[in-house]
Design brief:
The structure is a single chain. By secondary structure, the chain is α+β, with helices and mostly antiparallel strands. The protein has 1 helix and 10 strands; from the N terminus they run αββββββββββ. The longest helix has 28 residues, at about 5-30.
Length: about 160
C-alpha cells in the first residue's frame, strides 16, 4: 500500500473516531440547559428543582420546597453519562427504601429529555421539555394500579 493511501486511511479513521467520541459527550451536553433553579408555583406553595454541573459526565439535581428558612428536600437526582447511555437516577425521600432508581434516556434532543424505566411502580417515564430558555415542563407518567396517569409541572427559571 502506498504511503499516501495509508495516510488517507489513518486520517479518515481518526475523523470517524473523533466524531464518535464527540457524540458520546453530546448526550449529557444536550441536557445542560437544565442547569439553574426552576420554580413550579402550586396552591400549596412553590416547589423548586435546582441543577448544577457536577463534571463533564454528570449533572446533579434536587427537588425541594421552602418552609420559612428551611429547605425540605424531596429527592436528589443524578443525570449521568455512562458509556454510551444517559441515565436519570433519582433518590426519593421515603420511597424505595432510600435507594436510587435508574431511568435510561429514550429520547435526547436540544429541547427534550425523556427517560424510562418500565419496571418501576410509578412513574415509568420522566420527561423534561424546554419551552423557552426560561421555561420548561417536567412530566411524569405511566401506569399506577392499572390506570394510566400523568402529572405535569410547568416551571420557570428563577436562577441560572
Amino acid at each position: 500500500m502506498r504511503t499516501g493511501a495509508k495516510f488517507f486511511i489513518t486520517v479518515v479513521g481518526l475523523i470517524i473516531f473523533n466524531a464518535w467520541t464527540i457524540k458520546q459527550k453530546k448526550d449529557i451536553q444536550k441536557a445542560e440547559w437544565l442547569v439553574g433553579t426552576w420554580e413550579n408555583k402550586t396552591q400549596k406553595g412553590s416547589i423548586y428543582e435546582s441543577w448544577t454541573k457536577a463534571d463533564n459526565n454528570e449533572l446533579s439535581g434536587k427537588s425541594y420546597s421552602m418552609r420559612g428558612k428551611d429547605t425540605i428536600v424531596f429527592e436528589n437526582i443524578r443525570l449521568v453519562q455512562e458509556n454510551k447511555k444517559l441515565f436519570y437516577i433519582p433518590t426519593v425521600k421515603n420511597q424505595n427504601e432510600g435507594l436510587p432508581v435508574r431511568f435510561v434516556a429514550k429520547a435526547i434532543s436540544e429541547n427534550q429529555l425523556v427517560f424510562e424505566n418500565p419496571q418501576h411502580d410509578f412513574p415509568q417515564i420522566i420527561a423534561y421539555t424546554k419551552i423557552t430558555s426560561d421555561s420548561l415542563i417536567a412530566e411524569i407518567s405511566g401506569t399506577k394500579n392499572g390506570q394510566k396517569r400523568e402529572q405535569t409541572f410547568p416551571m420557570k427559571r428563577v436562577k441560572r
